[in-house]
Amino acid sequence: MVIASASYNGSPPDNAARFCEWLRTADPDTLSLAGVRYTVFGCGSTEWANTYQAVPTLLDQRLAARGGRRVHPRGEADARGDADAAYREWHSGLWADLASALEKVQLLSLSAICLAGIGVLLSRRREAGRPRRRMLALLIDSFVLGLLMIAALFIAGALDALHLDGLDQVAKMPGGWTLPRFAYESEAWNGWGCRLRGIPSSYAFGGTTVQKPGKFIRDHVFSSTTMDPQLGTIAIVEKLFELDPSLKFADVIAKVDDTAPIVPAPHPIIGNSNIVWVQTSLNKLRIAGTPLAVDGNCGRGTRAAVRAFQQTHHLIVDGLPGPLTVRALTNALAVAGFF
């Protein structure tokens, strides 16, 4: 089992939450992972020092504690450094360790498919030539087949992520994908922390003339003077439209007058809700997905916990802590005896 995972404020990605919870809470007397061979590669950034590699480390330690056998050292990619080099170093000995651990008989499905591809190619190749040249051609073909399989796995993972966030449903909604909707979903994915501080989200507008200083520089620490150096989604998609006009949304990218500071309007549902209070309240009530980092950013983890609360209190489940959700939280805290 090869696991690649990141962390978000110390919490697992959405599609790993149930697996991590299972590892945390399963009875060690009844759960045995003896015979499970695994390795973990973690993605993160030391910019978020307190939770750096939190989930990959948890997975690695809990799998080992439950009897799993680590067959290749855990790898770490730091986005503030050379993440590609870290991955290449980790990957360089991966297949040899996997082959050794599996006694060179059982291979991961990807390798098995590649070897099957070699067998098919061997049975079909009849061209003349020196054996070394034929073998080189076979190796190239199998390598290309492996790359295609890896690409298919990455695409499948991306589609899963789109589905988990509900983004695969946007095209079916009234209006479908437009640039404003794209900007909204980009900002929502990263959290409303910047908007709640009255500045455009650098996740969406980084690298454009709309961008203003302000970003989270460490775990739960926001700097109003730091300019995020990364390109935002709007700049990226505008370049994609330039390279391939067929990708364009139906609406045109509007050019704005940025000579005066652009202050984003309050979120139409969240408004001026105190997100720190919302996060603290959800933690007190021990809602699914908590404990949350109390940082004032209504990000994916906070919205997931809000959705869980809304569902159990028969509210509209949208993950947005608006007035009705805030009122329900206040009532729930009173019932629980917190005031």
Characteristic key phrases:
339 residues, alpha/beta, Rossmann fold, 4 domains, four-stranded parallel beta sheet, two-stranded antiparallel sheet, 12 helices, 45% helix
Could you explain the architecture of this structure?
This protein has helices at residues 17-25, 54-65, 83-92, 94-101, 109-124, 131-164, 179-190, 202-205, 233-243, 275-285, 300-312, 323-335, and strands at residues 2-5, 37-44, 69-70, 75-78, 215-218, 221-223. Strands 1, 2, 3 and 4 form a 4-stranded parallel beta sheet that branches. Strands 5-6 form a two-stranded antiparallel ribbon. It contains 12 helices and 6 strands. Helix 5 runs antiparallel to helix 6 and helix 10 packs parallel to helix 12. The protein starts with a strand and ends with a helix. With 339 residues, it is of the alpha/beta class. It has 4 domains: 2-101, Flavodoxin domain (Rossmann fold, 3-Layer(aba) Sandwich), CATH 3.40.50; 109-163; 179-247, no CATH class; 275-335, Muramoyl-pentapeptide Carboxypeptidase, domain 1, CATH 1.10.101. It is globular.
